[in-house]
Amino acid sequence: MTKRIAVGRLFHESHGYARPTISESITVVRGDRLIREARGNGTTFGGIVDALTERCDVELLPISDSMIAPSGLIDHGFYLDQRRFWEEQVKGLRPDALIIDLHGAMGTTELDDVEGDFLDHLRSVAGESVVIGVGLDLHANITPSMLSAGDICIACKQNPHNDYYDTGKRVVELVLEVLAGRLHPVYTLAKARMIAPGKLETHLGPLKQLHARARVLEQSTPAIVDISLYNAYRFGDFTDMGQAAVLLSNGRYPQAKEIVYKFAQEFWERRDEFNDDLLTIEEALDAAAERPKRLPKALADLGDRTLAGAPGDSTLILQAAMNYKRPLKGAMTVHDPETVAQAHTSSVGATLAMRLGGKLTPQFEPFDVEGVVKVINRKDVKLIGPNFGGESAAMGDTALVEIDNRFQVIATSKPGFISDPNVFESHGVHIRNQDFVVVKSQYHFNANFNGLATSLYLASPGLAYYLPGVFDKKRARVWPDVDVEADPILPPQVFARQGRFNYRLKIN
Ligand SMILES: [Zn+2]
Fold this sequence. Notes:
There is one protein chain. The chain has 508 residues and is an alpha/beta fold. It has two domains: 3-274 and 489-502, Rossmann fold (3-Layer(aba) Sandwich), CATH 3.40.50; 281-458, no CATH class. 26% of the residues lie in helices and 24% in strands. The protein contains 13 helices and 19 strands. The strands form four sheets. It has an eight-stranded mixed beta sheet, with helices on one face. Strands 3-1-5-6-7 form a five-stranded parallel beta sheet, with helices on both faces. Strands 9-10-8-19 form a four-stranded antiparallel beta sheet. The two termini are 37 Å apart. Bound molecules: zinc ion.
């Protein structure tokens, strides 16, 4: 029998310390266009839509898609409007299942567990019999509300997130198993009250070992369906924040509590290993000066990463490069709507006196500098790399301004996904001709620049590098900001959706 499955996405990683994200800057796609655009794209949502499209026993019902680049807390009114729309759609469509791509670290100006609230509301509208499946980012702040309302809640397993697409396919597979009555999801959650300040790639250090152990357990134990390990988003301020392990079992699995507790305990015991090895801006420019013998350098501006929610308006690397002892050539973006407007009201070839960048991040200043307008652009730029390939770069209108005949500066009107060569190439800036390009990403740009540039990681100032004491946490009680030594691990909790399949569990 044909199953009617509704799909959509509400995806945002909300920086608790950047300026709030206004609703005018958010794109919402609805109707059949949502399905067309998701097909074949490298995200969790692409995997969901492709997996469902392949099946002849599924009718696909599009609801709504908002893929929002990381930035400050979402305007609460915007969120309420979205929630209302989704509730109306679920009421009207009466689907058998609902499959959603959520990041899991969304906050609004009034609410810290947005995904928990969202799923709670959808559950109360959909009723108990509708299967709700969610694909999450592993930087989600996973909460009891999410695990109570959703039937399937699993995270991607890799950082950089090269497995988003497969995560989407896996969520579909598991939702179909629940619909068929073969999977009875039970979740067991444990959290260590700590931030992991750095070393968050899953192919390195402690995370490599933790994930390897999780995969062995999944493969060797029939009752274990999935183990998702979450590195809570460092720049959010969430109640009961921490490094989490969530075990999904088919029915109750008595050893689950001990297993998740051990993962949380290992996070805690190895907390000092979560640190990055970073370069100063000067050291990175020394490496960039090795050209032309070597590949250009992709300088990851960690403090100003738009992919971690910072505004992307730093000019500090540009200023250092202009003052560097040898003449370097480089390309970078600066999130600066005013400079974009200034360029758009002049013409290609005009010289602008700019107050460039530094208007959005509290500790930055605008940089007074002249440049020549080279490109004025109103077209959407698509990302082409394996990471987020097919998605919009979400930069809004842009302008390319050349400074000092050697620096190609792309002013953007939105923060954007500055993690892909096409951000530059689409403006006629060839990576191979540069000594360096600046990216606003720590992980996801790597695969996209593979073979084009060598990655370097900079300890640069801004809102997106975690240092103890810099981010004043009001809700979160986490190491290293707070002393939690007496009680570092939250006791494991079990969640099962009661009522369905006449299948009851005692929830503790
Ligand atoms: Zn992530």
